[in-house]
Amino acid sequence: MWDKIQFFKSLSDYSFVKYADRVLHILCTKGNVSFTFQDVRYNVVPCDYVILPNSSLASAFSWSEDFDAVILCLSEPFITSMSIRSNYGIIGHMALLLNPIMKLSPHDYRICLEDLSRIKERLDEAKHLFKEEMLGYLLLAHILDLYDIHARSQTAQNVSERNADMLRRFIEMLYRKEYIKNRGLTHYASKLCITPHYLTEVCKKASGKPATYWIDRFTTHEIARLLLKKEIPLKEIAGWMNFSSLSHFSRYVQKQMGVSPSEYRNRAVGR
């Protein structure tokens, strides 16, 4: 089955476990949907375009009875294989990790809806001899439209090809959960063969946030996910996350999340 590009009729049909490593696009056309992304609650309404670079970072979806949307699931390797010649990709990616929702103007909404409708229409052509290449170009055109829409709403500066590649490798390390064993800035800078100061400055230029922010953001998301599993003792979570002691773990959670691990767990369980 050719599943590099898949459309779903509803979020009920989408498996967040099976497609955890996929890129999820949701163009809301009617009603509303809410979800939690990196411990922040978002509400989506018509003309909102949601892009989740990694759908495993989102949870607790709920939607209205009249909710309708174009739902697209993409294989990350397929997107990467298109080799888009633009360093804006990593800037947009980091921006979407901060806020996965784009508010579209009526013009941009029409453009995106037409792009997605065209891709969906051609996806059903089983006998096309160059189907993968054809769909790749249609998807490329849509991604470039998204880059244009997103870039017009951002103030972040462009980065060089070298720095864009460095940022991609930095974020990839975080996706691989290297923060579980290493949360020190020096560790990441060393693996990238740059200084901690340089990594921080490039991250600031691309996203407005320093490198330590991204390390802590991925770390706290993992901690929040583990705290929701109330059967796992806090001491075990602290050990898994490579904290030297439970008290050290508690201080970190209090600083980053504003509450103690126990309080966060109690609040989450009580929702």
Can you tell me about this structure?
The protein is built from eleven helices and eight strands. It is of the alpha+beta class. The protein starts with a strand and ends with a helix. The strands form two sheets. The protein has a five-stranded antiparallel sheet. It is globular and about 60 Å long. It is 51% helix and 16% strand. Helix 9 crosses helix 10.
Topology, element by element:
Elements: E1 5-8, E2 23-30, E3 33-37, E4 40-44, E5 48-52, E6 58-63, E7 68-74, H1 76-81, H2 88-98, E8 101-103, H3 106-123, H4 131-152, H5 161-175, H6 185-191, H7 196-207, H8 211-227, H9 234-240, H10 246-257, H11 261-270
Antiparallel strand pairs: 1-7, 2-5, 2-7, 3-4, 3-6, 5-8
Helix pairs in contact: 2-5, 3-4, 9-10
Essential attributes:
five-stranded antiparallel β-sheet; three-stranded antiparallel β-sheet
* Structural shape: globular
Largest sheet: 5 strands, antiparallel
Trace the largest sheet across and list its strands.
Answer: 1-7-2-5-8
Number of helical regions: 11
